[in-house]
Amino acid sequence: MNTKLGIRAREIPDLRDMTRMSRSIIRFIFHKDLNVKRFVRLFILCHLFFVQK
Is the pTM of this model over 0.70? Predict the structure, then answer.
């Protein structure tokens, strides 16, 4: 799994910015105290999207 992530990190230069953005989004969502289920579903969808790519 680590090798896969390493290859992906090399392929996508924006990966670091995306992780930073997702962290800020997580912080924003929990700060706003929105529906956690909705966030989890969104996170899973994004994860599946990146795994398939």
Answer: no
